[in-house]
Amino acid sequence: MSARANILRSSAAHAILIAYTILALYPVFLIVINSMKSRRAIFNDPLALPTRQSFDLVGFQTVLEQGNFLLYFQNSLIVTVASLFFALLFGAMAAFALAEYRFRGNLLMGLYLALGIMIPIRLGTVAILEMMVAANLVNTHWALILVYTANGLPLAVFILSEFMRQVSDDLKNAARIDGLSEYRIFFTIALPLVRPALATVAVFTMIPIWNDLWFPLILAPGESTKTLTLGSQIFLGQYVTNWNAVLAALTLAIFPVVVLYLIFSRQLIRGITRGAVK
Amino acid sequence: MGNLTLNKVCKSFGPVDVIRDVDLEVKDGEFCVFVGPSGCGKSTLLRMIAGLEDITSGDVCIDAAVVNTVPPSKREIAMVFQSYALYPHLNVRDNMGLGLKQAGQPRAEIAEKVDRAAKMLDLEKYLTRRPGELSGGQRQRVAIGRAIVRKPKLFLFDEPLSNLDAALRVQTRIEIANLHRELGATMIYVTHDQVEAMTLADRIVVLRDGRIEQVGAPMELYNNPANEFVAGFIGSPKMNFLNAPALGQPGRSLGIRPEHLTLSRDGGLIEGRVSHVEHLGGETLIYLRADPHGLITVRLFGEHAASVDDRAFVTPDMARAFHFGDDGLRMAA
Fold first, then answer.
1. Which of A160, B120, B201, B302 is a good FRET partner for A128, with 20 to 30 A between their CA atoms?
2. Chain A contacts of B87, Cβ < 8 Å?
3. Hey, is A135 helix, strand or coil?
4. For residues A182 and A93, what is the distance between their CA atoms, to the nearest angstrom?
């Protein structure tokens, strides 16, 4: 037995963690296995794994044949990645300014920028729609990107400004003496050092955008700008629901987020270990 | 050339005055050390010279040109920070060369300058490593190298040795002294450690609460302190301040350095009891409790036997004692 770990205690910790993992992943697992079963098998035994008899890819077939599924996919990806990019970029810039420069009203400005966390953006839907109509942006990607960027900014500013404050002043001053511009200092020194925080904010911001149904339905319901979540709604009818197709669409929709999440979480871990070794 | 002149320089953060009316002249090639307790404004003053802090009033001049509004990179200065402040994403070579690259110097010239500095600092083997792969001492040498390659008019050091362990601190101190001899450049060095100040400086500036208390060569400050604060700050162990009236001496207190006291078991001017003994081999420090003077430190050379609670007498060498008045200032002897 080692000095720090008690087998009983560590196995209890693992049991809890494993139980939670199963609990969290089970719905996803159900979606994935059922998407590969025939309609009858889904209803007869929803919890069973697909067998040789019940295995059926009809859901995926429907999804890929019916509707512009690839286009929806692409729309979702464009909107998510672009919104994420702008929210992180502008959020980090605002955070850097708040942390780095002394100016009158610094604290008030920080509070004002963070206030958005507490206000649900959906309350402003009507005004947003009117604005988008006036700006001729309805049924464009930009309508969604602008809304999501605005929605993601408060949290980004709030979290990142705390991390920006921890970036060594000496380092920034050394760069100033070396003649780097404030933009270079921001991009080449501050931004890489807060990468773990960026990854955290990215994960928090990304998932709601990818899953959102509300704004695509209102601001960009046109065929060319439909997102994946909105596009999948055609399989959910008032009287008949094509469960095969819905489940297949959901299964396909999971993958990009998982990939993005893996990319960001690697950054997270890298950031944590770098701090520990230094 | 590298002359620095501070002319009635002030700095306030809101209602708080951090630097008050500092006048100072540092001549070309001089090694000038700012020393003082933490919070005395010495680092702020250095940052103001570097251009990293704005000046509330007064002038900072480098080579007779007022540089109050000149950005740091255009002041022809280089700075070494306590925390090294190396760019974590660049290797040693690029860390040292970045300033020159920003200034638009040709690549071959930068490489040559970096090589020369690396040779001077014994860093040639590490040029391709990142700061994360270096030890503390090596990192600080890279930071010094980054300063050297710029060939600045002024070198600014902000407590560069504070993050190093004791042995490395002594070694790096000697390296910095050698560097100053070799380059003959003007250096301004901030520290709270009076040993560093005494060993490195041509001239020491003692600061307290944003004001200059005294400026002078190390031995000048040691032998001729202007006031109680400077007397207590310069010299280690600290000077003893005895109750002057109790000894029939003028003024409020009588300052006497631990090395200027003689200890005797049989008799002397002040009687006390040993409260603590430190044996350092080459010297012995004996702490004596004697009312109404408080704790008196006696520094004896060589080994001396003494144990706690022994009775002992000390006698100050009056020729080397200092008299301080009620205002803390030195009184004419």
1. A160
2. 171, 174-175, 188-189
3. coil
4. 11
Output the pLDDT for position A269.
67
For residue B59, list its beta bridge partners.
Answer: B7
Whether chain A has a CB inside 8 Å of the CB on B77: the answer is yes
| Predicted complex ipTM exceeds 0.90 | no
Own/partner long-range contacts of B67-70 (Cβ < 8 Å, ≥24 apart): none
Distance from CA of B27 to the nearest CA of A (A): 22
Among B16, B43, B73, B158, the residue to mutate for chain A (most A Cβ within 10 A): B73
Does residue B79 sit at the A interface (CB-CB below 8 Å)?
A: yes
Q: Which amino acid is at A107?
A: L
Euclidean distance between the first and final Cα of chain B, in Å? 41
Question: What are the pLDDT digits (tens) for A159-194?
Answer: 999 899 988 889 999 999 999 999 999 998 899 888
CATH of region B237-324, choose from 1.10.3720.10, 3.10.129.10, 2.40.50.140, 3.10.180.10: 2.40.50.140
β partners of residue B287:
B276, B297
Test the B interface: residue of A178, A182, A273 with most B CBs within 10 Å: A178
Domain B4-230 listed as CATH 3.30.565.10: no
Residues A29-64 have pLDDT tens digits of 998 998 888 888 888 888 888 888 888 888 888 888
What is the band of A148 on the pLDDT scale with cuts at 50, 70, 90? Answer: very high
Model confidence at A277: pLDDT above 50 = no
Query: Which residue ranges in chain B fall short of pLDDT 50?
Result: none
Choose among B60, B67, B79: nearest CA to A176: B79
Q: Please give, rounded to a whole number of angstroms, the shortest distance from the CA of B259 to a CA of chain A.
A: 40
Asked if B81's CB is within 8 angstroms of A170's CB, the reply is yes
Smallest CA-to-CA distance from B83 within A172, A189, A192, A165 is with: A172
Where does A59-277 sit in CATH, by number? Answer: 1.10.3720.10
- Chain B residues within an 8 Å CB radius of A168: 83, 85
Q: Residue A172's closest CA among A156, A154, A193, A152?
A: A193
Position B155 scores a pLDDT of 95
Check CB contact of A168 with chain B, cutoff 8 Å: yes
